[in-house]
Amino acid sequence: MTERILIVEDEPKIADLLQKYLHNAGYQTHWLSSGIGVSDWVRIEKPDLMLLDLMLPGKDGLEVCKEIRQFSPLPIIMLTARVEEIDRLLGLELGADDYICKPFSPREVVARIKAILRRLQAFAAASNNGGSQTNVSTLLELDRDRLTIKAGERETTLTLVEFELLAALQQHPGRIFGREQLMSRVYSDNRIVSDRTIDSHIKKLRKKLAEIIPQQELIHSVYSVGYKFEA
Question: Are 174 and 230 within 8 A, CB to CB?
């Protein structure tokens, strides 16, 4: 089935350019020019991925991203002219999977989309082959198909990047992963990513883990090295 990409962008020329490149790559697209109504559209139409501009009329991209993360793990790539690191980190902490600064190459956008959707397909295949998996501590159940984690009766939804980070860590309890190792597992296209980007994702992941397992700290920082999973 052809994947559908939602483009939320208030500049018609940019939206038109993205749609042309995405159509040529075999994707279906839908364009919204305002932040108002995006969450409702996503609930009903359930696209496969969203390109979300940061500066939008009516409601900005960060607010839209925050709303959608309340109910959906939809992959979100944020598009923006802001290049300050604080904006990048804020977008990632609210749940964006990736971040591309304007001006950008449409080919790069298509490549990023393909990389994210490939990872989703790999998760789906792993789920079909092995279903959900439980870590060695028996505390936490990971559902690859729905990108959810569960402990007892409590459950929460992760973004694709958060799920990949947790899966990498929990598969090797006690092993220390450097930030570069985690980057290579999450970003397979070998892009340059700041250490603080991984820290931002880990911070968000810890917060979600604390919601379902408040009595346990599962992801531990190893000073000047990286992170490890240990119950």
Answer: yes
Q: The domain 131-229 is classified under which CATH number: 1.10.10.10, 3.30.499.10, 3.40.250.10, 3.30.470.20?
A: 1.10.10.10
38 has a pLDDT exceeding 70: yes
Whether 138 has a pLDDT exceeding 90, the answer reads no
- Contact indicator for 227, 201 with CB cutoff of 8 Å: no
CATH no. for 4-114:
3.40.50.2300
Q: Mark 169-201 as b/e (b = at least 16 C-beta within 10 Å).
A: bbeeeeeebebeebbeebbeeeeebeeebbbbb
Confidence of residue 50 (pLDDT cuts 50, 70, 90): very high
C-alpha 183/C-alpha 165 separation (Å) is 9
pLDDT value at 134 more than 50: no
pLDDT of residue 22 exceeding 70, the answer is yes
Smallest Cα–Cα separation from 21: which of 51, 61, 42?
Answer: 51
pLDDT score for 33: 96
Paired residues of 156 in beta bridges: 149
| First CA to last CA distance, the chain | 40
* H/E segment holding residue 30: strand 28-32
The pLDDT score that the predictor gives to residue 198 is 85
